[in-house]
Write a structure and sequence with these properties.
single chain, alpha/beta, 8-stranded parallel barrel, 8 strands, about 40% helix, globular, binds 3-methyl-2-oxobutanoic acid
């Protein structure tokens, strides 16, 4: 299987040299091209497309067909940018061979790396994929595919016990060969400890400024996501970590550039975006 290693190695080198990586979600070629031109470091074809594009409450109805379709579109628009594609629910949890086949399908569709949620038993899956040549990003903390088990959109790692578990999972994933550890909605102090402890770079969303990179959903950055399709937009409240970069700029291109700049100079996320 063909992975474009130089694209991946360049971003890892930049993070190891202390430069923060700016990542945004992307689901189509037009935005992919715009963001590549603006200088984004990483594009994430997230299964958040279930909410953002399909109007659902959560990511639980996203399929491999959806993910490969959107990955191809993003790869067409941004041929020179590192692309990470999410493995949707049901595509990696059951056995490593099936996980490999699905991950390989995403890579053939244009991704350079796959992301999946959870630690524990998923560490073995990460090791298997890495040993078979597929770069992996582990998603820990709040894991949207487990929204029902977690009792809603809640910050994770608040107790000593759960913080220790997230640190352990991050360490195990890094030792299994994961290229990045994405931390969602965890206390900034915990994300800092993890970033300082493990060998892999961290990417945060609602995880404070000390991660090695940051990610946001593009439609959140533009201030245009206002909840599931069938719900009243006036009742929707954006999570604390969201910032509308479009409101102080004149174009989408400028908003994306402002986000990249704010990640690099560490003015985003500020304290008010963190837990
Ligand atoms: O699916 C997604 O967009 C994500 C981000 C929220 C990190 O996983």
């Amino acid at each position: 299987m063909q992975i474009n290693k130089p694209i991946l190695d360049a971003v890892i080198q930049q993070m190891n040299a202390g430069e923060k990586a700016a990542m945004l979600t992307c689901y189509d070629a037009t935005f992919a091209k715009l963001m590549e031109l603006a200088g984004i470091d990483i594009l994430l074809v997230g299964d958040s497309l279930g909410m953002v594009l399909q109007g659902a409450d959560n990511t639980l109805n996203v399929s491999m067909h959806h993910m490969t379709y959107h990955t191809k579109s993003v790869a067409a628009g941004a041929p020179n940018t590192l692309i990470i594609a999410d493995m949707p629910i049901g595509s990696y949890e059951h056995d490593n061979e099936a996980a490999y086949k699905n991950a390989e399908w995403l890579i053939r569709s244009g991704a350079h790396m796959v992301k999946f949620e959870g630690g524990g038993t998923k560490v073995d899956t990460a090791r298997y994929l890495v040993e078979h040549g597929i770069p992996v990003c582990a998603h820990l903390g709040f894991t949207p595919q487990s929204v029902n088990q977690l009792g809603g959109y809640k910050i994770q790692g608040k107790t000593d016990e759960s913080a220790a578990q997230i640190l352990q999972d991050a360490t195990d994933m890094a030792n299994a060969g994961a290229s990045f550890i994405l931390l969602e909605m965890v206390p900034a102090a915990l994300a800092k400890t993890i970033t300082e402890t493990i060998s892999a770079p961290t990417i945060g969303i609602g995880a404070g400024v000390d991660c090695n990179g940051q990610v946001l959903v593009l439609q959140d950055l533009l201030g245009i996501y206002n909840g599931p399709a069938n719900k009243n937009p006036n009742e929707f409240k954006s999570p604390r970590f969201v910032h509308n970069f479009l409101k102080d700029t004149d174009s989408i291109q400028e908003a994306v550039s402002a986000y990249i700049q704010a990640v690099k100079d560490q003015s985003f996320p500020a304290k008010e975006h963190s837990y």
